[in-house]
Specification:
- This protein has one domain (38-240): Formate dehydrogenase/DMSO reductase domain (Formate dehydrogenase/DMSO reductase fold).
- It starts with a helix and ends with a helix.
- The chain has eight helices and no strands.
- The chain is mainly alpha-helical.
Length: 241
């Protein structure tokens, strides 16, 4: 019953989302309601949220597929799938924020390699390809050496793409609440918290009730989410106190 309610809610939100697509393509940024203080709209906020989940989901996947931690046995495939879907949602959101959607190719072919945005675009692209390859290998050849290699490469890359978001915000000297040197360090922690919360929801709603590891996994993920949220609150207090 809970799954049916979840699917129905998902279908309803999809309808609202389709209206949002129509509004974006029909009226551009007219209804974004930008201001002098909040210069970015909902698209950027959604990008930050989903990109964090994607990076955090991959980090969670390494606990099963790379480090073979018994408590996370069997969670790698779900974590990779969640990371891949979240990454697609993040990139779609930030693409819709662009003024000229058709110029996205310029970032790849005419970008400045020393630019953080250029590095992030290529980082997300490589991260998406690695996540997709890891998911395919986990489905077809679980436990293979190639899968381990991909997870080893993807782990530092997930730390980079999450930390790069913090660096992108932190260099804005005109925004005193963003211009914080520790932002690049904090964002991987934020991403891991989001990934743990995503896995908690995924296993809670769609995990097999016959899996003997499920109760311990839910407890561990719950504890991780709470602890990381406390760490996030500490970071916020330290930044603004």
């Amino acid at each position: 019953m809970l799954k049916k309610i979840t699917y129905a809610f998902g279908a309803l939100t999809l309808l609202f989302g389709l209206w949002g697509f129509y509004d974006r393509f029909a009226f551009g940024h007219q209804d974004a309601n930008y201001g002098s203080y909040v210069v970015w709209g909902l698209w950027v906020a959604m990008y930050l949220f989903f990109a964090g989940i994607a990076a955090g989901g991959f980090m969670i996947a390494t606990l099963d597929l790379l480090f073979d931690i018994p408590a996370f046995k069997g969670t790698g495939k779900i974590a990779l799938w969640g990371a891949l879907v979240s990454l697609a949602a993040a990139l779609l959101s930030i693409w819709l924020d662009l003024g000229h959607l058709e110029r996205i190719w310029k970032v790849y072919l005419q970008g400045n390699p020393s630019s953080l945005l250029f590095q992030m675009v290529w980082g997300y692209t490589l991260f998406g390809l690695l996540t997709l390859a890891a998911l395919i290998l986990e489905i077809r050849k679980p436990g293979s050496r190639a899968l381990k290699i991909i997870m080893w490469i993807g782990l530092p890359l997930s730390l980079f793409i999450s930390g790069a978001v913090g660096a992108l915000l932190g260099v804005n000297a005109s925004r005193p609440f963003w211009h914080i040197g520790l932002f690049p360090v904090q964002f991987p922690v934020f991403s891991l918290a989001s990934g743990a919360a995503m896995m908690l929801v995924a296993l809670g709603l769609f995990g097999s009730r016959d899996d003997p590891h499920r109760p311990q996994q839910l407890w561990t993920l719950s504890l991780m989410t709470v602890i990381l949220m406390v760490v996030k609150l500490y970071f916020i207090w330290a930044d603004y106190s």
